[in-house]
Amino acid sequence: MTRFAFFLALLCTVHAETPTGLLAVKSAAEKLGQRPGMKSARVGVALLRLGANSDVVVDVDGKKSFIPASTTKVLTSVTALDALGPDFTFATTLGHTGTIADGTLTGNLVIKGSGDPTLAEYGWDDLFEKWTAIVKAASIMKVEGQVIGDSSFYGGQPRPGNWSWKDLGNYYASGAQGLNFFNNTFRVRFLPGKVGGPAKLLGTNPELPGVTLHNEILTGSASSGDQGYVYAAPYTNEVRLRGSIPSGSTFTIKGALPEPALTCAQLFHQYLTKAGVPVSQEASTTRSAGETTPPITTLTTETSAPISNLLQRMNHKSINLFAETILNRTGKTHGGNGSTASGVTAVKAYFEKHGIIASGFDMHDGSGLSSLNTITPRQMVYFLKAADSDTHAAILRRSLPIAGRTGTLKSVAVGTAAAGRVRAKSGTLSRAKCYAGYVDASSGQRYAFAIMVNGYTKKYSDVKPGIEAVMARMAEL
After folding, report:
1. S-S: 60 plus which of 45, 255, 308, 363, CB 3.0-4.6 Å?
2. Per-residue pLDDT reduced to its tens digit, 440-466
3. Dist. CA 37–CA 103, nearest whole Å
4. Cis peptide before 278 (omega within 30 of 0)
5. How is the chain split among helix, strand and coil, in percent rounded to 5?
6. Nearest residue to 43 (alpha-carbon basis) of 469, 395, 476, 387
7. What domains are there in the chain, each with its CATH number?
8. End-to-end distance of the chain based on CA atoms, in angstroms?
9. Mean pLDDT of all residues in 326-336
10. Cβ contacts of residue 32 below 8 Å, gap of 6+?
């Protein structure tokens, strides 16, 4: 390499972020707004240079409010790491009230949760086998009382009040409970009939004693996919199944458990009975009893993985249950009562702590399922900038999927300059698609970015190439 070529290469490295490159990003954002289905849509893009010369270098409607969908989980993640720390774990306690004499517990077995979203997430047999052995080891061979599920840790409102009725009964809107169990979901199995005719309800897993299922599911064509919806409110004993499933073999859809704490208590009651430990009264919950549990004698405690692990799973798979319970726990640690509102207060405090103007920002849940959430692209990148200077910045970055590689971004920007260089959380709601995260540009400069599209009328596949083009131009800086 000649001396002139060396200095030219050095100059290009130092000044890789050229006006032409930034104009290319802005042009790509503007072209995104001209794609099919975007005539009545809105596009917001903000790109912020990180480091010593930090500044917003691209802004397309960056001060306008957008529905962020699941990019809301970025706010939940950052605030949780700040308030709880990466090593925080959730605990679930199995204990009892009363006295033990001659092999009989005169009192209740109590399962007391503190919001662990992973309790029995893959099934309950191993957990209940362990708990039953511990009960027997405590010389309890008979229970003169009940198995009680205590879900009082977060109060009595398990879902944000403004979630859509169409969502409430479905697995992705299972909400946050003090005692979460089996992802707060149940499976419903059907046998399809003739196309256009009813599908036969075969049963649920787990069983739901006392709950009546009204089956209105029809059979669609073999290519129609899962169009089945569960309509139910928390604590209900009436569940309606509507929509359609594809014709062919048996088919399963998932719903939100009406009361996870009750299901947990009922199933453990059944397991104990089969294992030779009879329980004299039916399982119940503290909510049903209308009172709090008296102090319990602990038999064992289950502990979740560290929150750093949970955030990685949450952001890679966009798990709403994790987001809601983590937001609530953040709110409780911040001095609130563990409600959604207390979690939102903690997020707003983070805004204030880092001098981010909150005008136009509105938050109603931790997962982004609410269509009333709003944030500006500028607020999002300023939030990401603040997070990047925090102690746990590396943990947040690792929790975000990589474009073209992992999680919900595995099929995004494949074969473009953005593949492997963009780490971001995606967000999807009806007619809304958003991305927020970080770009490691080819020059070595790092950026925080937000791309928000609201109101498109075509398929996402018509919008996706435009979003990928914006990501690619960012990565090429």
Report:
1. 45
2. 999 999 999 999 999 999 999 999 999
3. 70
4. no
5. 35, 25, 40
6. 469
7. 17-87+308-475 (3.40.710.10), 91-155+261-301 (3.50.80.20), 165-256 (no CATH)
8. 24
9. 94
10. 38, 43, 45, 453, 463, 466, 467, 469, 470
